[in-house]
Design brief:
Blueprint lengths: L24 H5 L1 H7 L2 H30 L20 H12 L14 H29 L3 H4 L2 E3 L3 E6 L2 E10 L5 E15 L5 E9 L9 E2 L5 E6 L11 H4 L5 E10 L5 E9 L3 E3 L1 E3 L3 E3 L4 E3 L7 E3 L10
Parallel strand pairs: 2-10
Antiparallel strand pairs: 1-3, 2-3, 3-7, 4-5, 4-6, 4-8, 8-9, 11-14, 12-13
Catalytic activity: K(+)(in) = K(+)(out)
Organism: Pterocles burchelli
Membrane topology: Multi-pass membrane protein
Length: about 325
């Protein structure tokens, strides 16, 4: 059966914010983050429009100075000293602006010393161009260097399993790193999302409960150079204390897994997410081994990464 998930298998959160009212102005107050969070097509559109509009406005200002001084009509007069040499129409004013902004400097068009307003406009153009370049290019660089694509090379098993390990009933799933570069200070967390009603009668539709995956023992700190099986021991403190094989069929919950770490090559923090619903938890199963010893190295067979097999497991809950 399929139902609405809180977090998709690819880590996307199915939450949309609506009816913000006046709070939407907070997006404009943090404009840089808003631009970084936009999709690539909107970023490219804003990038092109900003530069196009800025170029046209600044070229119009240079053309306006030449028009007000009368340089356009006497541009070819060798005895006349214009504000900007060889600017006699809008295309020539636009070319002068591009040459100045891009520091190309062909030498055919240049500002003369008898134009103080042109010098002021040149200073304003230099400052404005530096600000626009720093803002937009910085935004594009941050967006390109985001470690979201690195999270796609972190792999989670399609299903979680419940079986015995060391004589204890455990909930387990598998994580893996597809790249040779390591995740520094990798840490994993699990949240159980389930609706419940408090003793006071308050209904909590998406109540979040922490699942212990080794906080006290340090097992949540991962050395992720090969696929690892993450284990949650079901005991009296676990929210699955009363879960049995029969009750699993009628339960409705979602386990959200969050894997965080620092990308070794860039030093940026990366987060990968996935989730498991109750129909993706297999009772009485165990993961197939994927590690084998070859000639001088260990080999990981990712074709068996999601594979499980049945093992004898009591159908009763830990409480029973």
């Amino acid at each position: 059966r399929e139902r609405q998930r809180f977090v998709d298998k690819n880590g996307r959160c199915n939450v949309q914010h609506g009816n913000l009212g006046g709070e939407s102005s907070r997006y404009l107050s943090d404009l840089f983050t808003t631009l970084v969070d936009l999709k690539w097509r909107w970023n490219l559109l804003i990038f092109l429009l900003t530069y196009t509009v800025a170029w046209l406005v600044m070229a119009s200002m240079w053309w306006g100075i030449a028009y007000l001084r009368g340089d356009l009509h006497r541009a070819h007069d060798d005895t006349y000293s214009p504000c900007v040499a060889n600017v006699y129409n809008f295309p020539s004013a636009f070319l002068f602006f591009i040459e100045t902004e891009a520091t190309i400097g062909y030498g055919h068009r240049y500002i003369t010393e008898r134009c103080p307003e042109g010098i002021v406009l040149f200073l304003f153009q230099s400052l404005l161009g530096s600000i626009v370049d720093a803002f937009l290019i910085g935004c594009m660089f941050i967006k390109m260097s985001q470690p979201k694509k690195r999270a796609e090379t972190l792999m989670f098993s399609r299903a979680a399993v419940i079986s015995q390990r060391d004589g204890k009933l455990c909930l387990m799933f598998r994580v893996g790193n597809l790249r040779n570069s390591h995740m520094v200070s990798a840490q994993i967390r699990c949240k159980l999302i389930k609706s419940r009603q408090t003793p006071e009668g308050e209904f909590l539709p998406l109540d979040q409960c922490e699942l212990d995956v080794g906080f006290g023992t340090g097992a949540d700190q991962l050395f992720l150079v090969s696929p690892l099986t993450i284990c949650h021991e079901i005991n009296s403190k676990s929210p699955f204390f009363c879960l049995s094989q029969r009750s699993l069929r009628s339960e409705q919950f979602e386990i959200v897994v969050i894997l965080e770490g620092i990308v070794e090559t860039t030093g940026m923090t990366c987060q990968a997410r996935t989730s498991y619903t109750e129909d993706e938890v297999l009772w009485g199963h165990r993961f197939l081994p994927v590690m084998s010893l070859e000639d001088g190295f260990f080999r990981v067979d990712y074709s068996q990464f999601h594979a499980t097999f049945e093992v004898p497991t009591p159908p009763y809950s830990v409480k029973e």
